[in-house]
Amino acid sequence: MSGLALVSINHVYNGRSVLRDVSLLTQPGEVVALVGPSGSGKSTLAAIAADVLTPDSGRILRSYRRHGMVFQQSRLLPWESARGNIAFPLVLDGMARADAFERAAEVAAAVALLPSDLEKMPDQLSGGMRARVAIARALAVAPDFLIFDEPFAALDPALRRRMQDLVIHLSATFEFGGLFITHDLTEAARIADRIAVLDRKGEGILGSLKPEGRPGTRSEAAIYAFVQHETATNPLLADLMNVDERALTYDDACDTSGPRRCC
Amino acid sequence: MRAMTRTIGAQLDRLRVAPEELVETGLVLLGRWLLRVVPGLLGVALFLGLWHLGHLSYGQFILPSPVQTLQAILRVLSSAEGWGLITATIARVAMALTTAVMVGVGLGLAAGYVTFLRRMFAPLATILLGMPATAWVILTMIWFGPSHGSIMFTITLVTTPMLYLGTVDAVLTRDRKLEDMAAAFGARAWQRFTRVALRQILATLAPVSGITLALGFKVAIMAELVANVAGLGGALARARANMDIDMALAYVALTVAALLAVEYGMIRPFQRRVGQWKRGGAL
Ligand SMILES: Nc1ncnc2c1ncn2[C@@H]1O[C@H](COP(=O)(O)OP(=O)(O)O)[C@@H](O)[C@H]1O
Ligand SMILES: [Mg+2]
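Above: query sequence and magnesium ion SMILES. Below: predicted holo structure tokens.
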């Protein structure tokens, strides 16, 4: 029992419809990737799934106990150390700071952060380390469902690979299902049990693809072949490579070193 | 137990540093410290040197020497009356700024979150910010007479709009994505405000607090001088009336010293506490 059902979700931003009649169902323990071009409303759907945003209409059924979330650009609190960031959701829950710190050290070990990394501030950490801290923060609340919103989009390919392997490993170890949002089909094919494709304009889920086998058991060659074959032949994916620059949001424009840095 | 002693011993061995290495490190640290302090000291020396040159060419009735001024300062500091003047000014600034913080930051927070209030207060804030401090001194002297109250009123009116606008700006420029992050982990509106928004707002306000304090002091001195009310400004007015340039300079120096004392005693620690993360090591 750890699935999520989004039923007929509609959302309008300032009079502009962003999501129209979007329905998505995840099975218990299943990791579903949601792909769609930038600006198609993926982050909006993630925010709705995470209860950050209330949709204009539609139903959300959560049959999991608790969710955690990993964001694009990590979104670490810049005034807290890595340890403080990981402990943040626990402190929100009302856990004593000392206990929360102890638990933070535990989950930090699960994502291969060293005790010495925990004292560092976000701006002293590299993109990869920040992603690890963000994952540890999501794991801190012992979630049985995880929502990822393009968490590795800003990382270089080698690092992205390593982070994807970490997510596959963690999902097997801690047995969480989840929603993994990405616009990278290879990433989706590596991490997810199933890949749902969101319409370019958020007008519903177009359909879904199912790569052979479970994540973690697929060979690189199989993933490559799958992606090549599907992009060439599957009409669902025709729009995935068409990015509408005008529809890009602040999230994509966000600069980690700029004045509005969001790390 | 013995094993533990041995490991500790081994660690101590590793920590042991050759004396020449220690001296070397010490010299490097000393060098760095000198590099940091020497330019400032040179600046002060340059200032005092120019002052003394001015004294030599204009004579002590126009510009007393730094040493004469220092003697005058010591005279003020050794009298109960002198301390009374300093305390009076600082107390006025403190009380007026407390009011300004409560009103300016309070309204600024409300207006930052509520667009209607922001639009309503915008013309008011612009007008108040544009009012010269002297105009307030004159008006309040007419309204309340030359009193303690008129000076406090003036300081409050001059500093409140700055704090207000600073706070509104701080609310508007905060990173709302962090609040969404907190919401995703189940934070309620109040938690998002206190644990995420307020941290950023205070950090943005940190530099404003220093500017406001300095402004508060300047206005206090000016208002005391015009109203001739007991305080450093009032003493300055009296020194001018008696053509006592030694004392006038001493009071000016004391004003600057009082401002610096509050700045380094209260404002800087506040800024470091709330704003260090934003400016890295710059504070
Ligand atoms: N807070 C917002 N206010 C208004 N429009 C928004 C907001 N957030 C996103 N949008 C718009 O909604 C659309 C979908 O955005 P988003 O969900 O971020 O897409 P994706 O994550 O797929 O790139 C975009 O056109 C974007 O400009
Ligand atoms: Mg997005």
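Chain A touches chain B through 29 residues (CB under 8 Å).
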